[in-house]
Amino acid sequence: MVAGPEVHEVVVVGAGPAGIRAAVAARAAGAEVLVLDEAPRPGGQIYRQLPPEIRPRRRDPLGASRAKSLALLSDLRRAGASVRAGVEVWGVMPDRVLLAHEHGRAMVLQAGALVLAAGACDRPVAIPGWTLPGVVTAGGVTVLVKAQRVLPGRRVLLAGTGPLLLAAATALAHGGARVVGIAEAAPRRAVLGLLRRPGIVGQALEVAAALWRTPIWARHGLVRIEGTEEVERGIVARLDDAWRPVPGTERALDVDTIVLGYGLVPAPELADLAGCTLAYDAGRGGWIPVSDPERLMATSSPGVFVAGDGAGVAGADVAEAQGRLAGLGAALHVGGLGAAEAHERAAPALRALRAFAAFRRTLETMLAPRPGLYELAADDTIVCRCEEVSAGEIRVAVEEGARQVTEVRAVTRAGMGLCQGRMCVPSVAGLLARWAGVSPETAGRLPPRLPARPVPIPVLTDPVLESVAAPAMEAVRR
Amino acid sequence: MPHSRGVKTASRRIGAGVARGAPFRFTLDGEEVEAYPGEAIATALLAAGRRIARRTAHRGAPRGVFCAIGVCHDCRMVVDGEANVRTCLVAARAGMVIETQVGFGRAAGPAADGLRAEGPPSGTEPPRG
């Protein structure tokens, strides 16, 4: 006889700023809380900690955001939530049953209330040459430089839009890389509009100090990457309002590394599996679970709350405020506190969210991808990195009638690989718009499937799953 | 390897601001690479300027670290004989045997040459970014 699932009052998935604030708020309301994160240490991608073996010195030019992350982490420790790092959640079943594994050992957890704070990853953009070694994402380069202290190369060109691009450039400059330039698709006034973020002054000064010699080309974008075995150069051009390159403005820059930072795409798979209604929101990164701060970040699925970039990309500070609300919502759901009390405690976080409204409008205008971005792919440009499906193959599928990303996948295999479509589906949707005028809503998304992440085979055959999840496991094995 | 290029000293590690432990070594396709405690395999390889993690199954195209957070799966390599290990997520350890991965799991080193006939041709087409 196999034991049933491990039961917890509140389970928080993701220990970034949103998840940590949710855990702290739920604990403060008296709920018992378990926090799960796939990384070895809490903090999320943005506050990813150095490994313990690499110790910061007193003067550390790359440690500027450390005060914020230390405050978060110490609040988490003091809150008395159990934190299990190194746990990957790969499924959600009805009634908030979570399927997870810890280094290949399967786990089944039952949550009274569930907070999904799974974050986001960099938007994949199929630009010619983007598969060459030496092309890295803005989020990825930030992790490499700040949390691993290594440069992916020496001469770097950055291209994309939004604050993460500047953050990545700042980290690279502090780390000693030669930042050749930053091609920012948005106009200069949008870049300056980022200064509307409350509390930005210190950070803006840091960016300005690090990048004062670095050209920032507003309304410019990368049109192609060249190289044989690795990156050798990037071609940038001026962009019009639709992000289409202006003919005759191309210029080649010899670099060994190119950073792509076209914003983030939320990871909605777990919310999708949990039965939450999703909606498409281009300015917030794409498909996101529908939620409402006034309803404490509740979704359409009872007892399931969302927060952070996974609930719509808006950055770490908004994530913290949403996390507080979601934690209160979860505590309220399990009876840890009353409705009046919960809403009273929610007031400061709701005020904080209102203070970010102007900044978020700027951000959403900057980050919503424009049509020119998906017109860069040539027929031989790889779109699906895993299955090596080219834009030309997708064009043929569209010509033959495919109108949804699932139809493109069925015909071309784009989205069938190990990344489970995370690196190609946004581009496939963009190409459907390019060649058939298909709206993102019609293009749709890949349906949620178990496992939501690739897991070691022994996890799927672990007897612990049989008692609680037999029907679903049948589906997985089919 | 008889003609080993040895440990690359022109490092891309960022020295300022942190203190590292004592370095150790592992091998990449038979050549020694230096790593420091706390580094992922992919990190140590980037620091050594070795950016090609694998070659794709159909086109033989080179791939390396792209997302660095375990999502894209492009930094997959053969680690101590186990294929498809995301090297951005796994810590480097002394004496590890790392191999450039070909396709879905063969190593690219000389030992794997005999296996090439079984799989799709590799390295025969120019990389098509």
Q: Would you give an account of this structure?
A:
The complex is a heterodimer of chains A (478) and B (129). Helix content of chain A is 35%, strand content 22%. With 478 residues, chain A is an alpha/beta fold. In chain A, the strands form six sheets. In chain A, strands 1, 2, 4, 5, 6, 7 and 20 form a seven-stranded mixed beta sheet that branches. In chain A, strands 9-16-10-11-12 form a five-stranded parallel beta sheet. The longest helix of chain A has 18 residues, at 316-333. The radius of gyration of chain A is 22 Å and the shape is globular. Chain A starts with 5 loop residues before the first strand and ends with a helix. Chain B is mostly beta strands and 129 residues long. In chain B, strands 3-2-8-6-7 form a five-stranded mixed beta sheet, with helices on one face. In chain B, strands 5-4-9-10 form a four-stranded mixed beta sheet, with no helix packed on it. In chain B, strand 6 and strand 7 form a beta hairpin. Chain B is globular and about 45 Å long. Mean pLDDT of chain B is 82; it is low at 1-9 and 110-129. The chains are: A alpha/beta (478), B mainly beta (129). Chains A and B meet through strand 3, strand 9 and helix 3 of A and strand 1, helix 1 and strand 5 of B. Strand 3 of chain A pairs antiparallel with strand 1 of chain B.
